[in-house]
Structure formats: structure tokens, C-alpha cells
Amino acid sequence: MSKIRIATTSLAGCFGCHMSFLDMDERLVALLEHVELNRSPLTDIKHCGPCDIGLVEGGLCNTDNVHVLREFRDNCKILIAVGACAINGGVPAMRNHFTLRECLEEAFLNGVGVENPQIPNDVELPLLLDKVRPLHELVHVDYYLPGCPPSADEFLSVLGDLLEGREPALPKKLLHYD
Amino acid sequence: MGEEANTITHNTIYIDGQPVTFEAGQTIMDAAFSAGVYIPHLCHRPGLTPHGSCKLCVVDIGSRGVSFHNSDRRVQTKFSVDIDGRSVSACTTPAVAGQQISNNTPALNEVRKTITQMLFIEGNHICPSCEKSGDCTLQAMAYHLGMLDGHFPQFFPRREVDASHPTVMLDRDRCILCELCVRASREVDGKNVFAIAGRGITAHLIVNSSSGKLVDSDLETNDMAAHICPVGAILIKEHGYEVPIGRRTFDLHQVGEIGLEKVILANGHGKYATPDDETRHARFPVPNPLPQAGEGANESLREFHVNVRHTDE
Ligand code: SF4
Ligand code: SF4
Ligand code: FES
Predict the structure, then answer these.
(1) In chain B, what are the domain boundaries?
(2) Closest to B144 (Cα-Cα) out of B112, B174, B121
(3) Are A174 and B139 within 8 A, CB to CB?
């Protein structure tokens, strides 16, 4: 049996979901007998090849996030929004209360302890979106894995269902948003 | 025979086929409460005037299958004719003898989930950053209904936070306009501290004081209005994290448990989850994450399951 190919990425997230994925600990060994990782911070592969499952942590806060999400959607048969930020913007979306200018000024001009105040302007830097957005507002998302972060058991539940060719059905006892 | 059927159904409604007796003047919600039948609700609290705004308590009323209706149409009251075969809010609709009520059906729960999704996306519900998480009835309702996502585009509205009061915090980001605080203040505290102003998408909670700020209102820490908020919009300051996440009300209880609201209210904000109550600890359950390998699963997958399950024990 050929292995199921999985890609993962963190957009406007904190990598907490990836850490939680790794919380599967020794169960990862059994999992990796059935899956192989494509593009992922865990493999350092930079671009997504054709994959069966894409796990996307974090919402959209800049233009790079938009490109990466499109790449995932184009290459992954099944796209899963992982964690609170991917699903509704999460904590990064708390900046949506303010204008982008207010955020930049607070962080880079007026913030406590700022030296040499200036708003970063390098062409290499992706432009920030005016608001942080959840994934499903840009692309079609197939499944959602709530939690901040989702527990290792949640990852196992949804991946286990998919590996067996079943529609993922998260048990209610695993469902939480915090 | 006909007479007998009448006396039996005289004060009885049927919720999902289960006979539920009611007293004159009771709503469907009241009758269900007394009988220990859970009808999902957010804006209702026994003892306060029903408000009928959240629509989580939507039920379907039909009268098919009621024996005396079939045999004698004259027995049907005017009222039950009018609402026959319609969706109504259980908290505001009077119980009428013979009503056949659908409550816990997949279709209604799907509608309720959609309503809950709308409540989430209309406000700013960032649960990981909310003090109320785990004690929040809206969140518990979403768990109950199996809500995984908000489905609709997020509004991200800008709403005013009022931190002026020394002991009570008002964060309108999370207000679902249920008017529980409005009614508690008016009917129990005798104060009229809160009201809803504006219409539609501009509707918002206002405070009855010269400045519009809580600090200048009559609100006191022990008022019911300061404790009744089902979400994290009205919070008591300096008590937010007395009970850790994972041991809060809805980490230990299901929203559908009858009588839970009295427990919540009697114990006050943040103090109702008993930290020793390991028995119903739902948050970190005994790991049993994967279902049995079903039909069609190959042998190695079965092994994978066995490995996964055993390595965690
Ligand atoms: S009020 Fe409830 S649903 Fe809203 S953010 Fe707080 S815990 Fe989540
Ligand atoms: S502040 Fe709370 S109790 Fe008052 S209307 Fe809003 S959600 Fe309801
Ligand atoms: S509980 Fe009936 S409408 Fe809210």
C-alpha cells in the first residue's frame, strides 16, 4: 500500500498546533508507517507536491499566507483547517479591532522600548492584510479541527478516520475551542 | 372511550413522542423543564419573563397522530389550529393539550447549529482569550450541537469595552443580545441597569447612567444582572481564573443537564466547578482516540490501531 501523503504549514498561527501534532509522541511511529510528510516545517520541503491531506494551522494575515494557502488548496485532495486561528482568525484576529496603521504604529513607533522607530518596509516582506481572516473565506475547506490547540487525540481521530477511508467524525468528548 | 382519551390528553403535550404534563399557563419550555426534558435555549432562564430572541429553542408543532383530532375535529382549539405544523420558540409558546412537538431531531439541531454559528460570527468570540471559556453557555451549546466552524464570513465588528466599574467588566464583543441581564436587573434587582438599543446589526447593549458607563450606574457586584450573562460579556473582575481551564462547568457537565442553570447561578461566577470532580472529566478523557478498524480496513491498519491504543496505556 502506498503511503498517504500529508503536507502541513503554519500561517498566522503560533506553531502550537504543530507542537500538539508532535504530542502524538511514540504514536507518531505507528502513524508514519502509513503516511509520509511532504511540504512541512517538519521536513523543510519548501513547496507542496500533490498530496492527499493538507493540514493548515493559522489564519491569513499577509499576502504570503494567501499564496501558501492557494498552493495547499491546489495540491491537496483534502484540506483541513487546524486550530482556532485557521477556523475563525483566533488570537491574531484580535488586531482586527484596530486599523492596520494603528497596529504598526503601536508596534514599531510608539511601543514601549522601541529603538530606532520605523515601520519595516523591505520589499522582501509580505504585505499585511488589512484584517486577519479565517481560511474558509479564501478557499474551500473540507474539514475543521477546532481547539487552541487541538489535542494529539483530535489529530489521531481525524487522521485515523481518513486513513480508513471514512468521513471524519470528531467525538464530542474531544471537541473544545480553548 | 372518547371521553377517556380527552381526560388523558387534557393537560398533556407530547415532546418527541414522550407525554409531558403541563399546568395551565405554562409554556412548552416550562413543561419540558418540569419533566426534565431538555430543549436547547440561550436566552431563557426559569423565573424571568421569556424573551424569545435567541431562537435556539425552536421546535416543530404538528398535530398529526393525535387520536381525538382525527376522530373529532371540534376538539381542536383555535390556537392549535393556528400554529399547526409550524416552527415556534418553545420558551414563548403556550403548551396546549395534544400538541405533538418535535424537539431533538437531526433537522432541528442542524437549524440550531446554524443559529449558533451566526451568533459566533456576528460577535468576536476568540475563546482561547476569553475568561469565560469552559463556563460559557454559548460555547457549550456549540459543543452540544457539534459545531466545528463558523461557516459564514466573520463580521469582526468593533464594539465598545467598558472597564469603568470597579468590580464588573462589560465586553460587548461577546454579547449575544439575549437580554438576560436586562431582565434580571429589571425583574430581580429592581434597577434597570441595562437595555438593548439600536436595531438589526446595530443593536447593542447600553447602560443606564448619565455617562453611559457602568461605573455611574446602580450596578452592584451582588446583583443578579452581574452574574447572569451566559457568555463572557459581563464578568466579575479579579475572579477570572480561579477555576483553571479544563475543570470548568462545561468541562465537567453537558449543557443539556437539567437544573444546571440553578447550580451556575447559585454558586456565582467562576466558582461552580468542583476541582475534585474527576469523575466526569470530559476534557482529558481516557485516551481511546480511534474507532475500531472497521470493515474494509486492511491488516496493517488494524495493527496501527492496536499500536496506537496500546502505546498510550
Ligand atoms: S463568550 Fe463564550 S463563545 Fe464567546 S469567546 Fe467567550 S467562551 Fe467563547
Ligand atoms: S451582556 Fe450578556 S446577559 Fe446581557 S444581553 Fe449581552 S449576552 Fe445577554
Ligand atoms: S430560549 Fe427561546 S428564543 Fe431563546
Answers:
(1) 2-104, 156-279
(2) B112
(3) no
User: Quick check: B268 and B221 in contact, CB under 8 A?
Assistant: no
Q: Which three cell numbers stand for residue B90?
A: 418553545
**Number of other residues whose CB lies within 10 A of the CB of residue B131:** 20
Q: B200 is written with which cell numbers? A: 438589526
**Which domains, from first to last, does chain A contain?**
4-95+129-163 (3.40.50.700)
**Of chain B residues 92-131, which have a CB less than 8 A from chain A?**
120-121, 124-130
In whole angstroms, how far apart are CA B21 and each of A87, B61, B97, B127, B228?
43, 16, 9, 39, 29
B98 CB neighbour count, 10 Å cutoff: 23
CATH superfamily label, B2-104:
Beta-grasp domain (3.10.20.30)
Q: What's the one-letter identity of residue B292?
A: Q
pLDDT, tens digit (0-9, with 9 covering 90-100), for A1-24: 689 999 999 999 999 999 999 999
Within 8 A of A97 by CB-CB distance, chain B residues are 124, 156, 158
Per residue in B257-304, pLDDT (tens digit) is: 887 876 665 544 433 333 333 332 333 232 333 333 333 334 444 454
Distance CA A151, CA A7 (A): 19
Element containing residue A65 per DSSP (H, E): helix A63-75
The amino acid at A4 = I
Evaluate whether the domain defined by B156-279 bears CATH number 3.30.70.20.
yes
Q: Inter-chain contact A163–B301, Cβ cutoff 8 Å?
A: yes
Is B134 within 8 Å of chain A by CB?
yes
Q: Report ipTM (2 d.p.).
A: 0.95
| Cell triple for B17 | 413522542
Are B43 and B119 in contact by the 8 Å Cβ rule? The answer is no
Angle between helices B137-144 and B106-122 in degrees, nearest 10: 140
CB B157 within 8 A of CB B122: yes
Cell 499577509 maps to which residue? Answer: A62
Size (chain B), residues:
313
Please list every residue in chain B whose beta carbon sits closer than 8 Å to the beta carbon of residue A174. Answer: 285, 289
Optimal mutation site among B118, B304, B305, B309, interface A, most CBs of chain A within 10 A: B304
Q: How far is the CA of B183 from the centre of ligand 2 (A)?
A: 10
Among B126, B245, B296, the residue with its CB nearest the CB of A93 is: B126
**Cell matching residue B27:** 409554556
Separation of alpha carbons B289 and B38, rounded Å: 28
Nearest-CA residue for ligand 3 atom 1 is: B41
- State whether residue A131 sits within 8 Å of chain B by CB: yes
- Note the pLDDT tens digit of each residue in A77-112: 999 999 999 999 999 999 999 999 999 999 999 999
DSSP tag of B272: -
